[in-house]
Design goal:
heterodimer; A: mainly alpha; B: alpha+beta; Alpha-Beta Plaits; 5 helices; transmembrane helix (chain A); Quinol:cytochrome C oxidoreductase (chain A)
Chain lengths: 496, 174
């Protein structure tokens, strides 16, 4: 039996406490109204010498409208006086709080016409107000989006581990049964994680925040593209879908754990067979629900954009993170002497999975990026234009972290057996995939107002602490070795 | 100095593995082992050095990547930077996504083919090569260990007979 080390427990509590403080600080400092925003903007203007703010603040709409002709032409816009820039921004804003302006083209035209006439003082004032409101929404979204990214990231890690677990069962893998209890411990986070996540979705649905722009009836009223999708993108249906997926995953987790424990005390393999069937059924449900989940929870923050391989892309991202977390837990427990039968070959296999799925993720990332870049269709390409413009370092840095680093480190067979190398590669992979989710959510919710600051780090720390606490508590409940699994003997003697 | 060798023939890979271990323990030098199929762990039992072919393949892959990059940079960017369908041909990095499929394929191509050729060269395999088969049965169902004779020949023959060999022959090698 494993006992939760008191140091680790304290550590997880500290993480949670720091996290709560960070999250609270993020909400506390978010601007309440446009006066606050005006102050912030004025302070920034002083700080950056005025020029840079105008450029940063007004770029997305401007750039999105002109698409990729000038992806590197940021500098030229800096010279445009702020007043005219604000016109474009204001034109783009009321339709959607998101950063892309493609759907707002009709309105744009109206405004362009208006532009030809002299812009009266009153108009100018109104546009300034609208711009303030736009920035206000982005800044108010910031702590919410930070919370949302961290919450979905950790919940999906638990889901990735669950999917891996189901695959090991369905494939009758001979190497992994000694790790089943570790995986079960990690997936115990799925239940609390999905409860918190569902509460977040409820808060979105009841307009406590502005993460999902299609949930705002004011926006939908003037946005014909979202109107056309409202048969799918409406709050009740959205919440029902979310509930079905979360319940489905948690049911599998509950029963697979139960059967796994019952199999320990059984005289035959009945529960193993039940687990096998449940895993096969879960995998079918999982791949469908995962796909829809990625449209709902991630792609729909950009309701004007769509991509067909998005579901797979999201899957690869959290699947590799899940495998990395399994490796971390295994290495930790092994180093404390709790996993008698785990040897370097098991690490080797996990590291191979980390390596392989990292490349799989890159393949999907690149396929999605390259197809859109190559065809350069304005309504699709804005997605990447905003990311390259405003998230350049996180966007490309993430590719380096999730691809180059693991490829170079984990290519060597010997390296895959060295714990500290696995931990190093795994840390980079996990940070990289957090950034991946950050890149998926942030551009649509906070736009160019992103920053990895107190609320982002606080949210991550909180969920990390909770994750550690829940998973290790579950690990203490049962023996760390499944006893009567039909493949356990093979797994104990596994060597590669 | 005679160049006599002993051919110890086995009909089971487990017996062979045991025999190899015993032979190594008795400090007889194993010249060669012939088997009809790969015997897992035989190289370790014989104490053979690990292969370095994977390192070769990695380096060949880097060569392939460089060739692809240099080729496309010269052709598409430096030599004749045409505007083809609006693709930005001002610098390599700007048009890179379009080159990645070729960079990938050439990396794999170079790594795979040069590694195979390296393997052929290092193991001396080519189309009209004369087979070096000491006993035709080793390609079907027998395992043969070839050990150089040093010192007492009879003693060695009995040693190998005791290792479970179905047949022990002493051959004069030319």
């Amino acid at each position: 039996m494993y006992t939760f080390s008191s140091k680790l427990k304290t550590f997880s509590f500290i993480l949670m406490a720091l996290g709560v403080l960070g999250i609270g600080y993020g909400f506390w400092t978010a601007p309440k109204n446009t006066q606050d925003v005006e102050k912030i903007l004025a302070a920034e203007e002083q700080h950056h010498g005025g020029h840079a703010t105008a450029e940063a603040g007004h770029e997305p709409h401007h750039e999105a409208a002109t698409a990729v002709e000038a992806p590197h032409g940021t500098e030229q816009n800096a010279v445009v006086p702020a007043a005219t820039d604000a016109t474009t921004t204001a034109a783009a804003f009321p339709a959607a709080d998101s950063v892309h302006a493609v759907a707002e083209v009709p309105q744009h035209d109206v405004h362009a016409d208006a532009d030809k006439h002299t812009v009266s003082e009153a108009d100018h004032h109104k546009e300034h107000e609208e711009h303030l409101e736009h920035v206000l929404h982005q800044l108010q979204n910031k702590p919410w989006a930070a919370l949302y990214v961290a919450c979905i990231f950790f919940m999906l890690i638990a889901l990735g581990v669950l999917a891996f677990y189901a695959i090991q069962y369905a494939a009758q893998a001979g190497w992994s049964p000694v790790l089943f209890r570790v995986m079960e411990g990690i997936t115990s986070y799925l239940l609390p994680g999905s409860v918190i996540f569902f509460i977040l979705l409820l808060l979105c649905g009841f307009h406590f925040n502005h993460l999902f722009v299609w949930m705002d009836p004011e926006v939908v009223k003037v946005d014909r593209l979202i109107q056309g999708k409202s048969g799918y993108l409406n709050v009740p249906f959205f919440l029902i879908r979310a509930a079905i997926f979360l319940i489905g995953w948690n049911l599998y987790r509950h029963y697979s754990r139960k059967y796994s424990l019952l199999q320990d005390g059984a005289n035959d393999d009945l529960y193993y067979k039940k687990s096998f069937k449940a895993s096969a059924a879960f995998l079918v449900f999982f791949i469908v629900s995962e796909s829809i989940m990625s449209w709902d929870w991630i792609m729909s923050v950009d309701p004007h954009w769509y991509s067909t391989l998005f579901g797979w892309y999201v899957f690869a991202s959290f699947f590799v993170s899940g495998i990395t977390v399994i490796a971390f837990f295994t290495l930790y427990l092994k180093s404390k002497g709790h996993l008698e039968y785990v040897n370097t070959s098991h690490f080797h296999d996990l590291a191979k999975f980390m390596f392989g799925i990292s490349i799989f993720w890159t393949y999907l990332w690149f396929s999605q990026f390259m197809l859109i870049w190559y065809a350069d269709i304005p309504e699709e390409v804005t997605y990447f234009v905003t990311r390259i413009e405003h998230y350049n370092l996180p966007f490309f840095g993430m590719v380096a972290m999730n691809f180059l680093f693991p490829v170079l480190l984990l290519l060597n067979t010997d390296f895959k057996r060295i714990p500290w190398l696995i931990v190093m590669a795994g840390t980079v992979i996990l940070c990289g995939h957090y950034l991946d989710f950050f890149n998926m959510i942030m551009p649509a919710t906070v736009g160019d107002r992103w920053f990895i600051g107190v609320s982002e780090i606080g949210s991550v720390l909180f969920f990390l602490g909770l994750f550690i606490f829940v998973a290790f508590t579950a690990l203490t409940k049962e023996s760390l070795l499944a006893k009567r699994n039909p493949f356990i003997g093979e797994s104990k003697h596994f060597h590669y | 100095m005679s160049n006599k060798v002993i051919y110890a023939i086995y009909n089971d890979d487990d017996v062979l593995m045991d025999a190899v271990k015993q032979t190594r323990a008795a400090h007889h030098h194993i010249e060669e082992v012939f088997t009809p199929f790969p015997v897992h762990g035989l190289d370790k039992a014989m104490g053979l050095a690990p292969t370095r072919i994977a390192i070769c393949a990695f380096l060949y892959g880097l060569v392939g990547l460089s060739v692809a990059t240099a080729l496309m940079n010269y052709v598409m960017i430096e030599d004749w930077p045409q505007d083809i369908g609006g693709k930005p041909s001002f610098s390599y990095i700007q048009n890179m996504p379009a080159f990645v499929p070729i960079m990938f394929e050439l990396t794999v191509f170079f790594a795979a083919h040069l590694m195979v050729i390296t393997f052929y060269m290092r193991s001396r395999l080519w189309p009209f090569k004369t087979a070096e088969n000491p006993d035709v049965r080793t390609t079907d169902d027998h395992f043969l260990m070839e050990v150089a004779v040093h010192g007492n020949e009879d003693e060695m023959v009995t040693f190998f007979q005791n290792t479970g060999a179905v047949e022990v022959k002493v051959i004069e090698k030319h």
